[in-house]
Design goal:
Layout (H helix, E strand, L loop, with lengths): L4 H41 L15 H28 L8 H8 L10 H16 L7 H16 L6 H7 L5 H20 L2 H12 L5 H22 L2 E2 L2 E2 L8 H4 L15 H32 L4 H21 L7 E2 L33 E2 L2
Antiparallel strand pairs: 1-2, 3-4
Helix pairs in contact: 1-2, 1-4, 1-5, 1-7, 1-9, 2-4, 2-12, 4-5, 5-7, 7-8, 7-9, 8-9
Organism: Octactis speculum
InterPro entries: Cl-channel/antiporter (IPR051280), Cl-channel_core (IPR014743), ClC (IPR001807)
Membrane topology: Multi-pass membrane protein
């Protein structure tokens, strides 16, 4: 047993708890912003009882109103998110995973693992994800978890008795190990996957490893995941709804398939073909991504205003797509009992349609947009 083993386990648990609290606050903040966005857009798109429909069942007057409001809302949050990083804490830019890997491999990047980085990344991530653009908190949670691992293990912002308790860990080796635990806690809290957190650290992050360290990292991930799940079970947009600790079925079960599908070995042939096509597209995407990164480094990053407006352009393109692409599809009846042979009524993998999961999007009350 390594010296100070009980202290190491306790510190790992503390880091996991802090990661869980941080992930809970981040998810609730994002949920609050998304709820505001949804409420605002639903007020415009509400078509119940409306009779002024287009030929394909669509209502047209709300479309441009929704588009303008969505563009303004999304662009405003994206600009704020970028400004927090650009003018507040530039070291919080990006996912932070390369910086974390670099530090654990012996490359010290000054002021990358500070409380100001956590605050800036938290605010920027909440605004960006809450704006509705295709982004998630998972990458930033990895960086924030590593920062928490560093800060907690070094006793930063801790009372004196905790600083004395953590004093044996004021060295580079222990800081490295606890940062790895923080990474696992961040992954576990973001994905609700403690084993995933352990494997991510073992495969991608850790430079030194032993069995006891692995168990302590896994313990940190379990504490982080348990903390965020228990809190998320009883709060919605920071409003207490009761049932503390009663993890709901919808949170625990991600896939609900209640209809058997016949499977034949022939079905794997198109799967293989799709895999090949997907691989080729992946090569093209990577080539474009490398070129885009070089272009951004040369023409965008040196100019602050361009760096600020670039995500706004992405937001406008994305909002345009999600607003106008659905207009190419006709409204489909929710109840298909009268015409079950209708192509749009096919329910692959499900025997019925969950009315709560469909989106009207300009359709009458008895129809939805597929």
């Amino acid at each position: 047993t390594r010296p100070g083993s009980a202290q190491r386990w306790t510190t790992s648990g503390m880091i996991g708890f802090m990661c869980g609290i941080l992930a809970f606050c981040l998810k609730q903040t994002i949920a609050s912003i998304l709820y505001l966005r949804e409420t605002m857009l639903n007020a415009i798109m509400d078509t119940d009882g409306d009779t002024s429909l287009m030929e394909n069942g669509w209502r047209s007057d709300w479309l441009w109103q929704t588009y303008v409001v969505l563009i303004i809302f999304t662009s405003s949050l994206v600009v704020l998110s970028s400004a927090v990083i650009l003018y507040g804490e530039p070291r919080a830019a990006g996912s932070g995973i390369p910086e974390t890997s670099a530090f654990l491999n012996g490359v010290i990047i000054p002021k990358t693992f500070t409380i100001s980085v956590v605050i800036a990344k938290f605010a920027s991530c909440a605004l960006a994800v809450g704006s509705g653009i295709p982004a998630g908190p998972e990458g930033p949670m990895i960086h924030m978890g590593s920062v928490l691992g560093s800060l907690v293990s070094q006793g930063v912002f801790m009372p004196k008795f905790m600083k004395d308790f953590l004093k044996p860990f004021h060295n580079v080796c222990d800081r490295r190990d606890f940062m790895g635990a923080g990474v696992a806690g961040g992954v576990a809290a973001a994905f609700s996957a403690p084993i995933g957190g352990l494997l991510f650290v073992a495969e991608e992050i850790a430079t030194h490893w032993d069995v006891e360290l692995g168990m302590q990292i896994f313990f940190c991930a379990i504490v982080a995941c348990s903390t965020v799940e228990v809190l998320m079970s009883s709060f919605t947009t920071f409003i207490y709804i009761g049932g503390l600790g009663a993890i709901k079925e919808k949170s625990a079960i991600l896939f609900a398939v209640n209809k058997e599908i016949s499977v034949n070995v022939i079905m794997f042939i198109p799967t293989i073909i799709l895999g090949i096509i997907g691989g080729l597209f992946g090569v093209v995407f990577n080539k474009i991504s490398v070129g885009a990164s070089a272009f951004r480094a040369k023409h965008i990053k040196p100019h602050k205003i361009m760096f600020l407006l670039e995500p706004v352009l992405v937001a406008i393109v994305y909002c345009s797509a999600i607003i106008f692409i659905p207009t190419f599809f006709d409204c489909v009846p929710i109840d298909c009992s009268e015409d079950p042979e209708l192509a749009a009524c096919a329910r692959v993998g499900l025997s019925g349609l969950d009315d709560e999961s469909v989106i009207g999007y300009g359709c009458p009350a008895d129809k939805y947009n597929p």
